[in-house]
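Our preliminary data section would be incomplete without showing what the modeling component actually yields. Below, a chain of 199 amino acids is followed by its predicted structure, encoded as tokens that our downstream tools consume directly.
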Amino acid sequence: MQHPDIAEILINLRNADLRLREQLIRKGALSDGYNDEMKQLHDANAAKLDSIIDRIGYPTPDKVGKEGGDAAWLIIQHAIGQPAFMKKCLKLLEKAVDENKADPIHLAYLSDRIAVFEEKPQLYGTQFDWDAEGELSPNPTDDPYKVNRRRKALGLNSLEEQTAIIRARAKEENQSSPADHAKRQEAVRVWKKQVGWIR
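Predicted structure:
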């Protein structure tokens, strides 16, 4: 590991994120839209990571260790109000994966997340949201058969198995579907336009 000091910073940023998420779960507030405190934390973490990337490049495990690399990826995944930053990281991560320096599963999750925000079909089925029936379901994919083939190639379980896991976890965390699905969908679209994911 080339940068143990940076690894420690990344792990601390991730831990702060997970602590806040746990607090929101305990309050039953995780399903109430994008919490302001969480948004501020995500934006601050993204800014710190962006300055780290400017200094050392993408934080791959050879630079910051596996835990540091995983922490960086989580920070990127949660930087949902920062389209330019997430897209910049996607390009850097693609290059790192091509060079066998980063986890292709991280790339699958990040590319799916960006696709969903841009209202495009995801390729790996990693991103879920509440559907009109009040169930957590995968966001639209290009082709369920191809999705499961891609998932298997990365060592991921099937989309059907993952759906059961996601729904069980949401139940454990007392997450609940929005009272008005159409209203929430419209609010999400407005937010996507505001932050620049769609026009």
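The chain has two domains: 1-86, 103-199. Residues 4-27 form the longest helix (24 residues). Preliminary results of this kind motivate Aim 1 of the renewal.
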